[in-house]
Amino acid sequence: MRMIGKLLLATGLLLMLATAAAQSRMQRGKLQPMQDAYAAAIRWGDFETAWQLVDPAYKAEHPMTELEFERYQQVQISGYRDLSSSGGPDGTVERAIELRVINKHTMAERTMRYRERWRWDPEAKRWWLVVGLPDLWNGE
């Protein structure tokens, strides 16, 4: 009788691990399209669309004004390159991004680094960017 109980317990644990692995693959499968959509929006200067991919909790704490959105119209993104990606212990995924930014008024181009952090939302079954839009002015 003990052997059957142990076998059932082991089978249950294996099933839970397989389910968790399948869920993780499903989550990862949804991450890349979200990152691609975000990168495309940033690359094409569509910061309002990029803002829609930001975590609602972050947006509530850091609302964007029309003036702030207008400021993004002063720049052109000429390059967006994924440098590295890593998973965090809390289930988030971080990407190091290199942006090439052109000031439309001076036509001067500069390169900057930006770190994205994405979290999985189990209720919405989607990924959210939890760091907001890149600060293209380094706090200025």
Give the tags.
single chain; 140 residues; alpha+beta; Nuclear Transport Factor 2, Chain: A; 43% helix; signal; Secreted protein
Folded structure, characterized:
The longest helix is centred in the first third of the chain and has 42 residues, at 2-43. The protein has one domain (2-129): NTF2-like, domain 1 (Nuclear Transport Factor 2, Chain: A). The protein is elongated and about 80 Å long. The chain is of the alpha+beta class and 140 residues long. The model is unreliable at 13-23 (pLDDT under 50). It has helices spanning 2-43, 47-51, 56-61, 66-72, and strands at residues 75-87, 93-103, 109-121, 126-129.
What share of the residues lie within helices? 40-55%
Please report the distance between the alpha carbons of the first and last residues. 71 Å
CATH architecture: Roll
**Widest sheet: strand order?**
1-2-3-4
Number of domains: 1
Q: CATH superfamily name?
A: NTF2-like, domain 1
CATH C-level category: Alpha Beta
The largest pleated sheet is described as: 4 strands, antiparallel
